[in-house]
Design a protein that fits this description.
Layout (H helix, E strand, L loop, with lengths): L1 H27 L5 H6 L5 H10 L6 H13 L13 H36 L4 H15 L2 H15 L22 H7 L3 H38 L2 H8 L4 H38 L5 H11 L2 H29 L7
Length: 334
């Protein structure tokens, strides 16, 4: 197991290096620049040149990239052009909110998607199967931001069941420990703060979970149908094993490998999809801050945040690879 993890970690190094190079070139090829965001369209050429020189943007790209990599390897991601604060501090301040939102969406998608996909496969052709497939297609087709607006307008604005914006009621004097508002409320036994933070997560979590939920339902259904047709499943049923034993030992265990792959890929998608969801609900996470940084050409924030998200993404995929070895030990020796 240890050698397997080390081998996977070594494979991540060229991936991250290539991503850093592509990210750097892409950002510096965008039209406009930070001087335009700071000065506006009426900035004089002298002021623009002065700002570019102070930020080192007048130097060759290879010099700028070398400086970026040195700072990246030392953990110094620079300061935000707009807030003047270290990019690392901005990321750590907002990252817990995005993680809470992502975990909420994953719990909804996995908790509903896997059982629904399994039941749809076991009752193939029934009304439940047709409803699950139709709902999955609908969930994939509806854009996240559009569903977010619908949920916000109906359940928050019209019915008033849930908050419309933010991570927590601004009038609530909650104790901050970890930055994860729900967890902080549980640790400090401020049950009202934890409940309020959870209520703020429900609508954006549902919106963000729509596409992963649909994908998990379809993948689970297809994978279970494939496994149900295998000879070892029919043999187990012919031997008189109970349905629960066949389901646990033979069907679900073998059907979970492609589902685990899907979940790992969707987790990275959730981090990027949070940009739209957090913007709609004014949810203070990294997604909303990235949207503002794009609008203002805040290069240090964009470079730092995207690289840190990429690190989280590859670590999630490493966890998925490790989960393979737990589901199917034969993966370790391949």
């Amino acid at each position: 197991m240890f050698r397997f993890i080390v081998r996977r970690l070594l494979q991540l190094i060229p991936t991250l290096f290539g991503l850093s190079l592509l990210l750097f070139i892409w950002l510096h090829r965008l039209p406009g620049g930070p001087e335009t965001a700071i000065l506006g369209e009426r900035g004089t050429p002298e002021l623009r040149a002065q700002i570019r020189k102070s930020m080192g943007l007048d130097q060759p790209l290879w010099v700028q990239y070398g400086r970026f990599m040195r700072r990246l390897l030392t953990g110094d991601l620079g300061n935000s052009i707009n807030t003047k604060r270290p990019v690392t501090d901005e990321f750590l301040e907002r990252f817990p909110g995005t993680i809470e939102l992502t975990l909420t969406a994953l719990l909804i998608a996995i908790g509903v998607g896997i059982p629904l996909g399994y039941l749809a496969a076991r009752r193939r052709g029934s009304w439940l199967d047709q409803a699950a497939v139709g709902g999955a297609l609908l969930g994939i087709c509806i854009p996240v931001f559009f569903l977010a607006y619908l949920l916000k307008q109906y359940f928050a604005v019209q019915l008033g069941w849930f908050p419309a914006t933010g991570r927590q009621d601004v009038t609530m004097a909650a104790t901050r420990v970890t930055g994860f508002f729900v967890l902080d409320g549980l640790l400090t036994r401020e049950w009202d703060a934890a409940a309020d933070a959870l209520r703020h997560l429900i609508l954006p979590g549902l919106a963000l979970a729509s596409i992963p939920l649909a994908a998990i339902v379809r993948m689970t259904r297809a994978s279970v149908l494939e496994v149900l047709g295998e000879d070892y499943v029919r043999t187990a049923e012919a031997k008189g094993l109970t349905e629960s034993v066949v389901r646990r030992r033979h069907v679900l265990r073998n059907a979970m490998l492609p589902v685990a792959t899907t979940i790992g890929l969707l987790t990275g998608g959730l981090l990027s999809g949070a940009v739209l969801t957090e913007t709609v609900f004014a949810f203070t996470g990294i997604g909303q801050f990235i949207a503002e940084a794009i609008d203002r050409r805040d290069y240090p924030v964009l470079q730092g945040f995207i690289m840190l998200i990429a690190v989280v993404y590859v670590l999630v995929n490493l966890a998925v690879d490790i989960s393979y070895t737990l589901i199917d030990p034969r993966v370790r020796v391949r």
